[in-house]
Amino acid sequence: MRAFVAIELPPAVQGELHRQQAAFRAVAPEARWTRPEGIHITLKFLGEIDGGQVEKVVQALAALGPFAGFEIEVRGFGFFPDARRPRVFWAGIHAPADLADLAARVEGVMEDLGFAPEERAFTPHLTLARFKIPRPQPDLAAAVEKHPHLSLGHFQVSGFLLFESRLSPQGAEYRKVARFPMEGAGSRE
Question: In 3D, which of 30, 44, 46, 2 has the Cα closest to residue 167?
Fold first, then answer.
């Protein structure tokens, strides 16, 4: 299965992201918009893993144990790599160092299992849309400039998930495999 580790967003934040996407859609019709229910904060993309690897991943992530919860704010918008040649349009994540620490812990245990380390620094964001051809999007950039610090909500993080990603012509579909920290004997979805 194609897998990744991520933080799930609460429905209220998903709803606000959906409202913002609807407002931006008119000024960026060529963008491929992400379905709000599929938007998440990726901690580690694993790629294709088999059943045996799934069990090892679940065990390694469960061994991380509980962590102190922290609050995240979704605020602002931007482009990767930049507004001149955007490939991704995103909403910003404002969080304490606890988020980067959690991502580093996940990265470390996955590296111990043989997964290649990320080459890029951890940059938390929420992907709202992708562009097939990276060219300037002046209307979208102008719309973003009208609300440079718009808050789309706050939420408390107390756990993360292992997800399966299934690709289809309609876009990626996600299935929750396991939740961490695990409660009781385990929290398999």
Answer: 2
* Peptide bond before residue 181 is cis, with ω within 30 degrees of 0: yes
- Burial call 128-148: b when 16+ CB within 10 Å, e when fewer: bbbbeebeebeebbebbeeee
Residues of the chain with pLDDT > 90, as a percent, come to 82
Contacts of residue 101, defined as CB under 8 A and 6 or more positions apart, other chains included, come to none
Give pTM, 2 decimals: 0.90
Instruction: Give the Cα separation of 185 and 167 in Å (integer).
Output: 31
Tell me the C-alpha distance between 93 and 74, whole Å: 5
CATH architecture of 2-180: Alpha-Beta Complex (3.90)
Q: Supply the DSSP string of 97-123, one letter for each residue.
A: HHHHHHHHHHHHHHHHTTPPPPSSPP-
Return the domain boundaries, the chain: 2-180
Report CA-CA distances (Å) from 173 to 29, 117, 127, 134, 164.
22, 25, 15, 25, 8
Half-sphere exposure of 136 (CA within 13 A, CB side): 5
